[in-house]
Design goal:
Largest sheet: 6 strands, mixed
Structural class: alpha/beta
Number of helices: 21
Distance between the termini: 53 Å
Number of strands: 12
Strand order of the largest sheet: 6-9-10-3-11-12
Strand content: 5-15%
Helix content: 55-70%
Length: 578
């Protein structure tokens, strides 16, 4: 874990090394000052030597200024190093997430990834800064102050050793009991963020069904779990301060008792005793800082493990040794394809799929809910890899292609249409960043989106809210189709992406496809029979298997499922979409 995180330091390595260097110099000045003070008291003030007092006083002023300067430098370099480290961690996490396959994304919730990129990285940043400053300062201060204390009076300095085992055992117990609660607390943060994200994105549905009280209960439950585990952890950590106070005042009492006896016996001077008190404070403050660091590291350890889990997650979708860059055409062949979302081969979502689709054909896909229609088409651009058999595009196995090249030739409009904050033009250019305004208009006309776009006051410069909440469902679908058309793909997949448009508009979109992109292979998943009845072929899916494959006319004669859907919608007069 530490080795992986250390790779994120990179260009901030110099700052990371300079910060502890200046910390050591600062500590050297702080430890030297009490020693000089004792000499000033014992050899200057007590004997009335003003020249000695002034000379030593000047040295003390210089030491104090140097301590201030070294502390400022150490803080500056530590701030740069920790902020840069956090930036690199977020960078590496984000770019690794971009390479995730859908299978990887399924392992992490969206809320969990957001928590890792924000809260967990912030915890790690704070811990990193403490490590390069306080974790260096505390041991160096402890060793230096102990050395000077033994130099002043070795017998009196033995008092400190009595406190060491008490502190060590106490801190070990605190860390042992606190860490599990911190770990559970961060898991609860994931659940709370998930509740908040779901509530905010589905706010209209919540209000439409008057479910505010239920959502409030879910939030309070998630927030209550965080409170419970946080309280349990803090109830353990809170013992850190009284433990330190006990050791500190115990040592000061011991020094006062034995020091007074040494002074009366003439074995020790007053200035030396005062110096011992100062070193006591430095030693015990160092121990307190060490205990605080261990508590902070205990908290950040849970965050570090969650971050490294994302950094070490590797996509199973990799390019081969010499991947193909060019996709010859839009022909598709499923050769005895099996697929399962889990590693359990017995839980197949697709079982023995064998199909052949010629380039330029329009193929409809129908089937009941959960029949694996979407799963089938997601194998084409390698959003998932098959667990058995092969999927071929343009005569080659999709695993032989460069993933980016393959996906550039496959445009997919998913069930959940997503638009991003920005103008309509910016959203459309996701399909082709270099598209001209004329190409944008042409794609929107094909998708039957041009008319409603021009009806907006700002036309194609109209701002879209995050998620496309300021346009209707049908408008959102048509914008997403236009965005896909701008890729000029060899394969176009529409995953139930005209469900929110009326039948007339749906027919106009399909006619535009036939006339404008005849060479593109078009796969249309639909619930309405009208959306696929003019297709070249129709695939009927049932429980992960192909129940029928042929022309609409052929299926109407021989396929029971197609007949049932057809008669329920066309002959039965059921509304479109039912």
């Amino acid at each position: 874990m530490l080795k992986r995180l250390s790779q994120c330091i990179r260009e901030y390595r110099t700052d990371t090394l300079l910060s502890p260097l200046f910390v050591c110099l600062e500590v050297a000045m702080e430890v030297l000052i009490p020693y000089l003070m004792s000499r000033m008291i014992d050899r200057g003030i007590n004997v009335g030597d003003m020249d000695y007092i002034l000379r030593l006083g000047g040295i003390l002023v210089v030491c104090a200024l140097l301590s201030l300067l070294f502390g400022a430098f150490s803080g500056h370099f530590a701030a740069n190093a920790s902020a840069g480290f956090a930036r690199n961690v977020r960078h590496d996490m984000y770019y690794n997430i971009q390479d995730f396959a859908f299978e990887n994304i399924d392992r992490f919730s969206t809320a969990g990834l957001v928590t890792r990129l924000t809260t967990d990285v912030t915890n790690l940043q704070n811990a990193f800064q403490m490590v390069i400053r306080i974790l260096v300062r505390a041991p160096v201060m402890l060793i230096s102050a102990l050395f000077m204390a033994f130099r002043v009076n070795s017998r009196l300095a033995l008092t400190f050793l009595a406190a060491t085992p008490v502190l060590a055992l106490g801190m070990a117990a605190i860390i042992h009991w606190a860490f599990p609660n911190f770990q559970k607390m961060f898991d609860c943060y994931d659940r709370m963020n998930s509740v908040v994200q779901e509530n905010v994105t589905a706010m209209r549905v919540v209000k439409a069904y008057v479910r505010e009280s239920r959502e409030t209960e879910k939030f309070e439950h998630a927030s209550g779990e965080i409170y419970r585990y946080s309280k349990a952890a803090e109830c353990v950590v809170v013992f850190n301060s009284p433990l330190m106070q006990l050791c500190m005042y115990g040592c000061m009492l011991g020094l006062s008792w034995f020091g007074a006896k040494f002074i009366i016996a003439g074995d020790m001077l007053t200035g030396e005793l005062m110096t011992m008190f100062t070193y006591t404070m430095q030693i015990l403050m160092s121990l307190m800082m060490i205990s605080m660091i261990f508590v902070m590291l205990t908290m950040s350890r849970a965050s570090a493990e969650r971050i490294v889990e994302v950094l070490n997650e590797k996509s199973r979708l990799k390019n081969g040794a010499a991947p193909l860059k060019d996709v010859p055409d839009g022909s598709i062949c499923f050769d005895n394809v099996d697929f399962s979302y889990s590693d359990d081969a017995g839980q197949k979502c697709l079982d023995g799929i064998s199909l052949k689709i010629h380039s330029g054909e329009t193929v409809g896909i129908i089937g009941g809910t959960g029949s694996a229609k979407s799963t089938l088409v997601q194998l084409i651009p390698r959003l998932y890899d098959v667990t058995g058999g092969s999927v071929q595009v343009g005569g080659h196995d999709v695993r032989d292609y460069d993933i980016e090249s393959l996906r550039n030739e496959v445009a997919m409009v998913l069930q959940k249409n997503t638009l991003f904050s920005g103008t309509i033009k910016e959203n459309l250019r996701w399909g082709n960043p270099d598209a001209t305004d004329e190409e944008l208009v042409r794609a929107c006309k094909q998708a039957q989106a041009d008319d409603f776009i021009r009806a907006f006051p700002d036309g194609y410069d109209t701002l879209i809210d995050q998620g496309g909440t300021n346009v209707s469902g049908g408008q959102r679908q048509r914008l997403c189709i236009a965005r896909a058309l701008l890729k000029k793909p060899k394969i176009l997949i529409l995953d139930d992406s005209t469900s929110a448009v009326d039948t007339k508009t749906d027919a106009m979109i399909r006619r535009a496809f036939r006339e404008e992109i005849p060479a593109t292979t078009k796969l249309i998943i639909a619930q309405r029979i009208s959306s696929v009845e003019h297709a070249d072929k129709v695939i009927v899916m049932d429980d992960g298997r192909v129940n029928g494959f042929g022309t609409p006319a052929e299926l109407l004669e021989i396929n029971h499922i197609y007949q049932e859907v057809y008669h329920s919608q066309v002959k039965g007069g059921a509304p479109d979409g039912e």
